[in-house]
Amino acid sequence: MNETAEAVVIGGGVVGSAIAYGLARRGVKPLVLDEGDDAIRSSRVNFGLVWLLGKGDGMPAYGFWTRRSADLWPEFARELKDFTGVETHYVKSGGVSYCLGEAEYGTRTEIITRMREQAENDPYEARMIDRGELIDLMPRVKFGPEVLGASYGPHDGHVSPLNLLHALHAGMKRHGAAYRPLTPALEVRPLAAGGFEIRTPKGIIATPKVVLAAGHGINPLERQLGFDVEVLAERGQILVTERMAPIGLLPANGVRQTAEGTFLIGTTNEEVGYDTSTTPRAGAAMVRRAIRVIPALAHARIVRTWAGLRTLTKDECPVYEESSQYPGAFLATCHSGVTLAAIHASDLADAICEGRLGANIEPFHSRRLKDQ
Amino acid sequence: MTRETVTVYVDGKPVSVGAGESAAAAALHAGLSYTRTSPVTDEKRAPYCMMGVCFECLMVIDGVPSRQACMVKVAAGMRIERQIGARELG
């Protein structure tokens, strides 16, 4: 079947869906092409943090972009809930990174100081807190003796990534987007007269505007649109416990308790290509560390484990750009599709809608990766 | 044909069940209409798949919470109890 669409978003994960939601909200009704359940889909395997710290080390624009998304998140979560009925469980709780022992506390202090000083207006507003302050923040949590303190980020929070994806899909459809699962883009052909033809197993779609937001699916398609961005895979493993009564835990990189009571324990950073296996060695290491932070976790039963593949660029910062060769073609990729969902649905979708990536988005062009 | 049986205690009540049966089967045999309540919705739940997949049959067995009762073989004197809501981390 051949058809036309006002815009086509390639990729129905959390990045493509947030952009499609934003476009549809502005009245541009996109058609979203997606793979099926067998896709490498980072949106469904991630930890669910809305997280600032560590984003933008060496690239201040990314720090500010992330902060703006964190600022937009509360209203974004409310809007999704009101419009779709789906509760994302977003909480701007503040987040911590635990320090076990003096050495970790020292290293963490250096990172926090460096991040704070590299930009004129500190977007993170993070600080070091000692064990006493940590206990004041989480009076019901019994920390292990090695926990000396933590870094604390007031703008950090967490969300259910699955509910977020569900809400974005429900919302974009309700705003008039068309969603096509099991319909991968096989070929994207720029037309001489402008516009594009996209070939799928089910037919050809003609459109004046295409957004390539397919995560690990970007690499096979991007050259047809004049892009050259390498999307790298990095494996992260996660363990999940049975559901337990809430203990008032702030989310952290290595452990968080979800709204439904499970503890998520993570994570690893492994370069293993597209291998999504889990390993007992990594599981044991993650559990050992979690127990040093909260010893009572030793009694929690682990019910599942899985591994996901992060989508990273060489400098781990996002890439957003319009093709210079084929105007109307946009590319969007980042590591933190959950954190950035709010700004993708607003500022980025606005810019794509207008067909002009302005000064706030310009720093994310991939030419910076060529200079390195 | 006779079968070897064992006595287990389902919510404190002695029940005689076939050796080799699962704790979930013993709970059903004892007439429990539900074996846990959901920590999320407080709904009553009972064993469903009986093959270790659905996690609906979580019970407290010999004092250990959140065990998949369908995957645990009965033993003489085993205590099998309903699990109500979320357990405490302690």
Quick structural gist:
With 372 residues, chain A is α/β, with parallel strands linked by helices. Chain A contains eight helices and 19 strands.
Number of strands of chain B: 8
Strand content of chain B is: 25-35%
The helical percent of chain A reads: 25-40%
Mean pLDDT of chain A: 96
- Strand sequence of the main sheet of chain B, in spatial order? 2-1-7-5-6
What is the molecular shape of chain B? globular
**Sheet/helix structural class of chain B:** mainly beta
Structure description:
The complex is a heterodimer of chains A (about 375) and B (about 90). With about 375 residues, chain A is of the alpha/beta class. Chain A folds into three domains: about 5-80 and about 160-230 and about 315-370, FAD/NAD(P)-binding domain; about 95-155, no CATH class; about 230-310, D-Amino Acid Oxidase, Chain A, domain 2, CATH 3.30.9. Chain A has eight helices and 19 strands. In chain A, the strands form five sheets. In chain A, strands 9-3-2-13-19-18 form a six-stranded mixed sheet, covered by helices on one side. Chain A has a four-stranded mixed sheet with strand order 1-12-11-10, with no helix packed on it. Chain A has a four-stranded antiparallel sheet with strand order 15-16-14-17, with helices on one face. With about 90 residues, chain B is mostly beta strands. Chain B has one domain: Roll (Ubiquitin-like (UB roll)). Chain B has one helix spanning about 25-30, and strands at about 5-10, 15-20, 35, 45, 60, 65-70, 80, 85. In chain B, strands 2-1-7-5-6 form a five-stranded mixed sheet, with helices on one face. A three-stranded mixed sheet of chain B has the order 4-3-8, with no helix packed on it. The longest helix of chain B has 7 residues, at about 25-30. Chain B starts with a strand and ends in a 6-residue tail after the last strand. The chains are: A alpha/beta (about 375), B mainly beta (about 90). Chains A and B meet through loops of A and strand 6 of B.
